[in-house]
Amino acid sequence: MTDKELVNLALDARKNSYSPYSKYSVGAAVLCGDESIFTGCNIENASYPCGICAERTAMSKAISEGKKSFSKIAIAGSSDQICTPCGLCRQFMYEFAPDLTVLCSDDKGNFTEKKLNDFLPDGFGPESL
Ligand code: THU
User: CATH number of the domain that 78 lies in?
Assistant: First the structure.
């Protein structure tokens, strides 16, 4: 699985986005340690804080299927701006994979690569307790 292929899966995952409020669809594709892949999209709610981001949807699908190891995630937005993970998602992902590679894409598939550790320096995780 190349980075470009993972980004393409994230772009495709936007098709099921439920985002009537922001009208900003997001897709994510997470590569697990065993090479399996889970995708997800953002799902909004009339009670705004109940919405969930694409990357948490993808990772939650994987975790609920027994996956605990993750190497890479691609996140794709729907504007010409690169879609970076929100603060809540950074913390959520840090719990399972502080060394995660994060590919952040715009709506055309142009992407950047960064480590989750760079998005969330000095993060609070299981080791902190
Ligand atoms: N969103 C994501 O799904 N992932 C991100 O990394 C950034 C934001 C969603 C949340 C909301 O449904 C919409 O994008 C606008 O904020």
Answer: 3.40.140.10
